[in-house]
Specification:
mainly alpha; Arc Repressor Mutant, subunit A; 4 strands
């Protein structure tokens, strides 16, 4: 949905009232328009000495600023969301655009589609995981609520593991404490990791702090 554009008469009235000594709040209440709009009109008039629409360089945006921010926010919060899902979400608010337009907007914000990689399990990995699972068979559900896992993966015994893409910024790693807040863990929690060098580095950094 495009932002509403006020008529030239309304913009001229805003400037006229401002010249008469009225403040932003009074003009906003009199004309029933947002105070931020009044401020934008007056700032534009001060800079260009006109309330007319200025020529815009290049092709105008197909999506409103609000919709573009919503796309970026959705991709950042849900990295595994697909372009089709983002396309449908924009259509729900009245903006139908091509998938390439969505990609271009996300790329400008620094978000790119990357393959979510996961390593293959070796025999020693399988043995260690089986040993860990059997040693914790008697643990209570409350104990597992205090565990923060460093890795999550889906393993298919049959069939084909298709590639999944995620939206993320280059060299972007989530902070450990951000995960604790998102998962609503208690502050006394267990960080379960598999001795991966980068995960050990994160853990050691948290302990030192």
């Amino acid at each position: 949905m495009k932002n509403k554009e006020h008529t030239r008469h309304v913009r001229d009235t805003v400037v006229k009232n401002f010249k008469a000594g009225f403040g932003y709040k009074k003009i906003s209440q009199t004309l029933s328009i947002p105070r931020s709009t009044v401020q934008a009109i007056i700032l534009k008039w001060k800079e260009y000495q006109t309330t007319a629409n200025l020529p815009r360089p290049g092709h105008p945006f197909k999506l409103s600023a609000h919709t573009r921010r919503r796309l970026i926010r959705d991709a950042a919060k849900r990295p595994m969301i697909t372009q089709d899902e983002l396309q449908r979400s924009t259509a729900e608010v009245g903006d139908s655009v091509h998938r390439t337009t969505i990609s271009r907007i996300l790329h400008k914000s620094g978000l790119y589609g990357r393959v979510a990689r996961k390593p293959f399990l070796k025999d020693n990995h399988k043995k260690c995981r089986l040993k860990f699972a059997t040693s914790h068979l008697g643990d209570t559900p409350n104990m597992w609520k205090k565990v923060l896992w460093s890795d999550e993966t889906k393993i298919e015994l049959f069939g084909h593991n298709a590639k999944r893409y995620v939206w993320r910024k280059s060299k972007k790693r989530k902070n450990l404490m951000e995960s604790v807040k998102d998962l609503r863990l208690e502050w006394r929690f267990v960080f379960q990791q598999d001795n991966d060098p980068k995960q050990s580095k994160i853990y050691n950094g948290m302990v030192q702090k």
